[in-house]
Amino acid sequence: MADRRPLIAGNWKMNGLKANLGEITAIAAEAAASPAVDVALFIPATLIAPAVAAAPDFFIGGQDVHENASGAHTGCISAAMLVEAGAKGVIVGHSERRTDQHETDATVAAKASRAKTEGLSVILCVGESLEVRDAGNAEEVVSAQLLASLPQEASSDWLSIAYEPIWAIGTGRVPTIEAISEMHSALRAALRKMIGGDADKMRILYGGSVSGDNARDILSVADVDGGLVGGASLTAAKFVPIIEAARNA
């Protein structure tokens, strides 16, 4: 990971009620015991304020943000609203939003920029479908997606990238270690074209069926700087082993 601190981020997606705050405090306790690893949870907007109150020193983030500061956007959430609730960061461009809400690369870039103006850190997601993977041009397609989704002011002090092969999310299928290495190397090279030497400071996370069983192997890959974890982040019992793997990678 060179000088890049590992980041283990959990994405709870549309899961989480106040009854689950105990899991958040348990994960926060493990994070406090692992100072060499950055740990974060990205949770539903309704749970941000209660989570921050329960674990005030822990990194809590939101799962999406609107590209505009305010306005007639029913059901959406602004960067300022996330900050007021206590969030420190946000995910943009997750494949589920790109697919289900038809978000474009330009929209993702605009969302990242808006989050940055309010002081939020950002995890920007990219990834390919199984059809693209099987066609043999995944690295080219995902690198192009990354460059088109990067905001103009992209820098490592507030932005991280998450590579999530769409076909691996929640399926239990994971690319080979070699494939993960090749993709992360390609994304690092693409970043260098856009932001120069700062690309070597930017964290690139892997996401897609990360578990306690495979985390250590994945996190040992040279250009993998952490993980964006879905289902395994919902409980401390499953998430803590991933944090421990990052600590020992």
Report on the structure:
41% of the residues lie in helices and 15% in strands. By secondary structure, it is α/β, with parallel strands linked by helices. The chain has a single domain (7-248), classed as TIM Barrel. It has an 8-stranded parallel barrel with strand order 1-2-3-4-5-6-7-8, surrounded by 6 helices. The radius of gyration is 17 Å and the shape is globular.
What is the helix fraction of residues, given as a range? 40-55%
In DSSP terms, counting alpha (H) and pi (I) runs of 4 or more, how many helices? 10
Radius of gyration: 17 Å
Tell me the structural class. alpha/beta
Query: What is the general shape?
Result: globular
Which percent range describes the beta-strand content? 5-15%
Low-confidence stretches: none
Summarize the structure.
The chain has 249 residues and is α/β, with parallel strands linked by helices. 41% of the residues lie in helices and 15% in strands.
Which key terms come to mind for this protein?
eight-stranded parallel barrel; alpha/beta; 10 helices; TIM Barrel; globular
Task: Outline the fold blueprint.
Blueprint: E1 7-11, H1 21-32, E2 38-42, H2 45-54, E3 59-62, H3 79-85, E4 89-92, H4 95-100, H5 105-117, E5 121-126, H6 130-135, H7 138-149, E6 159-163, H8 177-195, E7 204-207, H9 215-219, E8 226-229, H10 236-248
Helix pairs in contact: 1-10, 5-7, 7-8
